[in-house]
Amino acid sequence: MHRLKLKKLLTSVLTAVSLMCYGQSNNAVEQQIENLLSQMTLQEKIGQMNQLNTAGLTDDMKGQIRSGKVGSILNELDVQTINELQRIAVKESRLKIPLIIARDVIHGFKTIFPIPLGQAASWNPKVVENGARVASLEATASGIRWTFAPMIDVTRDPRWGRIAESCGEDPYLTSVMGEAMIKGFQGDNLNSPSSMAACAKHFAAYGATESGKDYNTTWVPEVQLREVYLPPFEKAAKAGVATFMCSFNDINGVPSSGNRFLNKQILRNEWKYDGMLVSDWGSIEQMIPHGFCTDLKEAAEKAVLAGVDMDMMGYAYINHLEELVHSGKVNEKLLDESVRNILRLKFRLGLFNNPYTKERTQMPYYLAESLQKAKDAAIESVVLLKNNHSVLPLNSSVKSVAVIGPLSDSQADQLGTWCFDAEPEHCITPLMAIRETYGKQVQVIAEKGLTYSRDKSEKGIEKAVAAAQKADVVLLFAGEEAVLSGEARSRADISLPGKQAELVAALKKTGKPLVMVVMAGRPLTIPKETELADAVLYAFHGGTMAGPALADLIFGKAVPSGKLPVTLPRMVGQIPIYYAHKNTGRPASNITLIDDIEVGAKQTSLGFTSYHLDAGDTPLFPFGYGLSYSTFNYSDVKLSSAVISKGETLTVSCNVTNTGNYDASEVVQLYIRDKVGSLIRPVKELKGFEKIFIKANETHTVTFHITLNDLAYWQADMVKRPETGEFAVWIAPDSQSGKEADFKYQ
Ligand code: GLC
Predict the structure, then answer these.
(1) Residue 684 domain boundaries
(2) In this structure, is residue 479 part of a structural domain?
(3) 544: CA distance to ligand 1 center in Å?
(4) Fewer CB in a 10 Å sphere around the end CB: N or C, the chain?
(5) Domain total for the chain?
(6) For the CA of 199, the nearest atom of ligand 1
(7) How far is the CA of 280 from the centre of ligand 1 (A)?
(8) pLDDT tens-digit series, residues 169-201
(9) Who contacts 659 (Cβ-Cβ below 8 Å, separation ≥6)?
(10) Closest ligand 1 atom to Cα of 281
């Protein structure tokens, strides 16, 4: 037998043997990849780089798989169909390479958790990891082994519909939450059949989209890119996220799908990332309308040169890479790199030795423990913004409640955006939960007032007012329908839609205690409504168990512990408004608001500092803000030293006392400020947090450790380093409070 054939036979036998074991060593996997790659034709390599939306078991799809033209399929949900597609791939294609099946499992598959922005409001990575783990258990049972989550785009623009999928405005909080989701999705072993490959998306700076309009252009100086938008992605890469996804937007004129600086220099050279980079849906092809490419062939060329490994539904690679290689425009070695990344993902997922999904008669959906985790997450994602006269929690003196509002009983809307596979009929709404759990304790009078959030008809308001007049307390569930946030769902006016403002005002006139619960996919501008309400709970879209969670919070079985992951502006005109802003040369002072300006006031009579005449310079509620039914006192801030030098760590501690009557959790936050820098530094930066449960009247000492890496920042020469000088530090309940302590780095 020819020596080469003998070698190949021997290699194949060795590969077959080693493939039988899970958790192969990296070297073994790399060896298997090289063996496979050496056998692949150019067409088969290109086939692996091609991702198609499902077409079921059509002859065309089966034929493409059989001829090795498909590397991945997204959005197929039927297990038997998936197994048949896999069977064709691993039995009938020449090299028997399995497919990877993908889906957007963003905040749950069947059991839906709060939208990621709500989960971020929990400031509890464990709750977030639990949610991703439940999602993975449910989705993998359906044959999904790759989810396009977490979405870790930092954003400071609530007009942007995709803020709903994000973890808010802060790089540190987003990094922590993104890592937790990756851990939940990927589990302890990526090759376990109940694990899914996670996907850090959208790489990068998608949240900087101009005017908050989706898919819009971004202009991000490199320093800001590295300081604000990249950290969660670097954290995800270091956390072992299996894949990345390009963003649709251009950054400073270069679309991410063709951005070598982003995808080669940063992702591969600086971060040494060895996972797989997939385009977004058609984002390679969209470089044509971007005006970055003349045609699909040029788009394919620019994308593969920029290191995009897989083309999601762009048909660019499958139609043009072969010609580009034959013409010499693209070196086949580039394709080899991408195919290695794709094969590595499939090996890591264990798909070569376990391509099929177990076909079950009973799917692990809506398990009791999953629903409990979803309820726990929903409880922790609610932020108490106002609670005048402790109207909440309702006590035994309350004998009747009026449950009102377009979100009071809308199973579909409380799920929020990006939950394709949810079944609204499994959702428990606030009205359902209040009736079911507290219907014996109180009389429940239900009148929606408005039939949906955008309802412009006021005819239902009269009935709602009548219901309110019969009740001791009014519980208003206001906000946004699910369809008003998410992809391509940006709003230029982020006030309560429809006639909700009128509904709030009418209910206020009844003089009854008014509790407003906001269920939305973004921060809304609700200054007037907040002023009129006696209590405000910001609940985002809380998912399947939003109702039971809110009922328990309202009736005191649970205590609110959420904190805002994003600033709530007073007015849309303040945007962007965020806590980690710069101080400017004229920070706001002696503010005179527009209605307080004397008629005939002289131009020079109002002072000259940085604020809006009609809004001032503060938000409605700041980042990190959230109340409890209890109260907490922060005292005895102590620093291990007033000076920190190279190689040293500064320990900062503080006593937090629960001075109220409820055992409760508090999110203790650590902020710093570098007072003077060669580049101006933000007035505050979140550098740590800890969510702690403290019994009433007990005190906990919370300790943080600050290292020089916490003080370092990206400087004009694109080197991240600390600078000596004065620093301030806060241990606080939110980004605007707390006593400042000072230290020096020298
Ligand atoms: C969408 C989204 C992306 C999603 C992908 C697949 O357009 O931008 O987040 O994962 O397509 O559905």
Answers:
(1) 632-745
(2) no
(3) 22
(4) N
(5) 1
(6) 10
(7) 6
(8) 999 999 999 999 999 999 999 999 999 999 999
(9) 630, 631, 632, 633, 697
(10) 11
The closest alpha carbon to 194, from 149, 244, 133, 148, belongs to 133
712 assigned to some structural domain: yes
**CA distances in angstroms from 374 to 37, 317, 410, 629, listed in the order given:** 43, 40, 18, 22
- The residue to mutate among 148, 160, 310, having the most atoms of ligand 1 within 8 angstroms of its beta carbon, is 148
Catalytic site residues? 280
Taking phi first (over 0 means left), then psi (-120 to 50 degrees means alpha), and beta for anything else, what does residue 507 get? Answer: alpha
3-state class of 311 per DSSP?
strand
Give the integer Cα–Cα distance in Å for 259 and 292: 11
Q: Is residue 467 part of a domain?
A: no
Q: What is the mean pLDDT of residues 513-528?
A: 98
Ligand 1 atom 12: residue of nearest CA: 104
| Residue closest by Cα to atom 7 of ligand 1 | 281
For 706, the token pair is: 């600050």
Instruction: Specify the pLDDT at position 26.
Output: 87
Task: Summarize pLDDT for 124-136 with one digit per residue, the tens.
Answer: 999 999 999 999 9
Within 6 A (CB) of ligand 1 lie: 104, 148, 201, 280-281, 487
- Residue 62's nearest CA partner among 94, 86, 96 is 86
Identity of the amino acid at 343: L
Cα(51) to centroid of ligand 1, in Å? 13
Question: What is the CATH classification number for the domain harbouring 661?
Answer: 2.60.40.10
Q: Helix, strand, or coil here: 448?
A: coil
Residue 697 inside a domain? The answer is: yes
Residue with CA at minimum distance from ligand 1 atom 11:
281
Calculate mean pLDDT across residues 214-226. 98
